[in-house]
Design goal:
The protein has helices at about 35-45, 75-80, 115-125, 140-150, 155-175, 180-200, 205-220, 220-235, 245-260, 265-290, 300-315, 320-340, 340-385, 425-430, 430-445, 465-480, 490-495, 520-535, 540-555; strands at about 1-10, 15-20, 25-30, 60-70, 90-100, 105, 110, 125-130, 395-405, 405-415, 425, 455-460, 485-490, 500-510, 510-520. It is of the alpha/beta class and about 550 residues long. It is elongated, with a radius of gyration of 41 Å.
Length: about 550
């Protein structure tokens, strides 16, 4: 559960520390005071994508820190998989710094990534915003609700794996189906390409070696002249002593002097070492000169071969290595086409087997969804009855569709909110308030199927008033008996049920706007409920009504 939230330099919030308790935590405040900012801050803490304009104007970074306690086994196991060891009775601290140029994430003071926060956040908090009501317009969302309620993770995974294999087999089968005339034409092209590449007798590194040899042949005279001069410097001639001989003489003289000066013995050895290295160079120069034998037609031969390789590269690849690979692929494709009938039969057999298996697994999903859908709508009816919709009728329409990644079922909630009316698609007949209450009911039902300890509702009471609003407050209070609930509301009927009432206020100091969050005591709650119901001017009657509303809510729970 979320124990505390620390926010610094987030939009209009310069600095705020918010303490939460078990039960129902309610935020109220004027429009624009910063309630949405708080939800965005929590989303950022959970690894959601965060815009740079979340950072307070004039600041370089925003800091959001969340402290969690009473961690569930699922969260502890997930943390261990990510490399963080936390005991069930320990606290978990998650921190995110959002800078203008970089992001920093930490888990219990250790470095983390945004992906890690997102992975853990999904098991810590479930946030329901007004945009989630739009999910009810999508039949795909209806299927996901029932799948979650029915705990179909294992069945969905097994089906998805077979479906993926089936699609792969289908693609292979489609690739093997080809027109006979195209097949013959393709075989001719491949045979020509293979023959041309094989006739070239290519070897890896051939082009590089030819290029090097071409440079040598073109500059043969200069190379021979330079090597001959080098040989004279090394060997000497009739007019001068060579470098090898000079070093040999130098070493001899140093050894002779070393008989009288001990320190010269090391110098003689160094000169000997230099002479040995020079003798190795002498050997290499002689071998190179001996190998400088050029055929007059070699230059033309090398040029012709390089021109030939250039033409091949224009057709088959950017290098000799790529041409060789092209040839190997051409052989493989030719083999596939040549034996396509046999492979087509094998692929068809494999596809049929996987399709049959997918159909059976999808039938299991259909049956489980029918059973789960019936139980789900019964639970929804109970919840909606508590939310001042006693006459509601709910069913799940299941129709068949082509096999897809999620099965062969098209599911949609049908609802009738008034007696005597046949159930119709929820998105077409439900009002805004009815959709809000239906979504709250769905969240309440699914909450019992999940291990997430904290639920956040951002204005779940949109479009609701009067008795229905009071029912929503009571429902949130009931849900909060089993888990922590955090709610943003504009309705006094909902706020009256809070175990922890937090007021968000916007203040202006000088030319800057600030938002502060404070916990209200009983008197503060009375005044805030009166403000919500009656506006800025607080009368004795409005305060009395607010006090009575708090008393009645407390008596109910």
């Amino acid at each position: 559960m979320l124990s505390a939230l620390y926010i610094q330099n987030v939009a209009v919030i310069q600095k705020a520390t918010i303490d939460f308790i078990d039960g129902l935590n309610v935020f109220t405040g004027e429009t624009g005071a910063g309630k949405t900012v708080l939800i965005n801050a929590i989303n950022a803490l959970l690894g959601e994508r965060t815009p740079k304009d979340l950072i307070r104007t004039g600041q370089e970074k925003a800091i959001i820190t969340g402290l969690f306690r009473k961690l569930s086994p699922v969260v502890i196991r997930l943390l261990a998989e990510l490399g963080y060891t936390v005991e069930s009775d320990e606290e978990l601290m998650i921190q995110r710094e959002i800078g203008t140029s970089s992001n920093t994430c930490k888990i219990n003071g250790l470095p983390a990534t945004v992906a890690m926060l997102k992975s853990i956040g999904g098991e810590l908090i479930n946030i329901h915003g007004q945009q989630d009501n739009q999910m009810l317009a999508s039949a795909e969302s209806h299927r996901r609700f029932i799948d979650s309620f029915s705990k179909l993770e294992t069945e969905l995974t097994a089906y998805a794996e077979v479906y993926h294999q089936m699609q792969k087999a289908y693609q292979e089968l489609s690739a093997l189906h080809m027109d006979e005339s195209y097949k013959a034409q393709r075989i001719d092209i491949l045979n020509y390409q293979i023959r041309e590449i094989e006739a070239a007798a290519l070897t890896a590194g051939e082009e590089e070696a030819l290029t090097t040899r071409l440079t040598i042949v073109k500059n043969a005279e200069r190379i021979i002249h330079s090597l001959s001069e080098a040989k004279v410097y090394l060997d000497g001639d009739d007019d001068r002593e060579g470098a090898v001989g000079l070093l040999d003489g130098l070493a001899g003289q140093l050894r002779a002097a070393a008989r009288y000066i001990d320190t010269l013995s090391g110098s003689a050895e160094k000169v000997d070492s230099m002479r040995y290295e020079l003798e190795e160079q002498q050997r290499q120069v002689r071998e190179l000169l001996d190998s400088m034998d050029f055929d007059a037609g070699e230059l033309d031969q090398i040029g012709s071969r390089l021109d030939f390789l250039y033409r091949l590269k224009k057709k088959y690849g950017a290098s000799v290595a790529e041409i060789i690979i092209f040839g190997e692929k051409a052989k493989a494709e030719l083999d596939t086409i040549t034996f396509s009938e046999e492979r087509q039969k094998e692929a068809q057999k494999r596809y049929n087997h996987l399709h049959e298996k997918a159909v059976k697994l999808s039938a299991v999903l259909t049956q489980r969804r029918r059973e789960g859908g019936k139980l789900f709508t019964e639970r929804l009816r109970e919840e909606l009855s508590q939310l001042d919709m006693p006459s509601v009728r709910l069913t799940v329409a299941i129709s068949v569709k082509e096999l897809s990644p999620d099965g062969a079922d098209r599911l949609e909630f049908l609802i009738s909110t008034n007696p005597g009316e046949e159930p119709k698609p929820l998105s077409k007949i439900a009002s805004g308030g009815e959709i809000s209450r239906t979504m709250l009911a769905i969240k309440s039902v699914l909450a019992d199927c999940e291990d997430i300890d904290t639920l956040i509702f951002d204005e779940v009471d949109a479009g609701v008033s009067g008795r229905a609003a009071q029912r929503i407050g009571a429902k949130l209070k009931g849900v909060a008996k089993a888990r922590q609930v955090i709610c943003v509301t504009h309705l006094a009927q909902v706020a009256a049920f809070a175990d922890n009432h937090l007021l968000i206020e916007k203040l202006v100091e000088g030319d800057r706007t600030f938002t502060q969050v404070r916990t209200l005591d009983r008197d503060g709650r009375v005044k805030e409920l009166a403000r919500i119901m009656g506006g800025e001017r607080l009368t004795e009657l409005s305060l009395k009504n607010a006090d009575e509303m708090l008393t009645l809510a407390a008596e109910r729970y």
